[in-house]
Description:
This protein is mainly α and 266 residues long. The protein contains 13 helices and three strands. It is rod-shaped. It starts with a strand and ends in an 11-residue tail after the last helix. The relative contact order is 0.07.
Amino acid sequence: MSYSVGQVSAFAGVTVRTLHHYDKAGLLSPSDRSHAGYRLYSEADLVRLQQILFYRELGFPLDEIAAIFKDPQVNPLERLLARQRQLSEEIARLQRLAEVAERAIEVQKTGVSLTPQERFEVFGEITFDLSYATEAELKWAHSEGQREAMARAAAHTKEDWRRLMGEAAAWRAELLAAFDEGELSNGERAMDLAEEHRLHISRWFTSCPPDMHRRIADDFVADPRAFALVIPPSQQRPGLAAYTRKAVHANAARHAGGRTDSEEDQ
Length: 266
């Protein structure tokens, strides 16, 4: 059975122009012609076209496809393995580019104006989850505190971030020690650490009154991405987010002159 150029174009998903190009390139010449001189493709031609399209999908140039077809000594498997290696390298390259693009987006969303290398040096395991940063931006879009925090973050120098993260690391170590040693979440030590965290936010980002600090701490329990900004996952313990939240709430009550929780928990 024979097929016209139009028929092959329709069911193969290629243009008539492409088929003509393959013919001129010597890749796929129709086996027959009609009485009127029109190209007619056989079943064998369609099989060859399928092979051409397969190689094209893998990114083989036309001259290399032609070499595979023309030279019986060419091992298609070797060509495919070589192409697989090239594709793997290209995938890795594109992944690196995607990561660079994501970091660039993060800079816009989080206000952290550092190069990727500087971010790694300064932040270490602490990472900004882009989806959380975006949601936070939308959630607090009309908040003066959010605008101030983003503006101040954008203005921080590399040295500012280094000092900021150094403070955060020291505070984190103290919090983990208090938790591991069984200090009460509403005890003096835990509340003092909560107060230190509140002042840290005020010092580096935006004024953080106790009621705002409570809302921030509520997110520690409600959204793991928020707590990961404070304690990287590798250092977290079961119950630590809730412990930190309770300490913040107890400290806020202390500032308000209210009574703290009487629970003896972590």
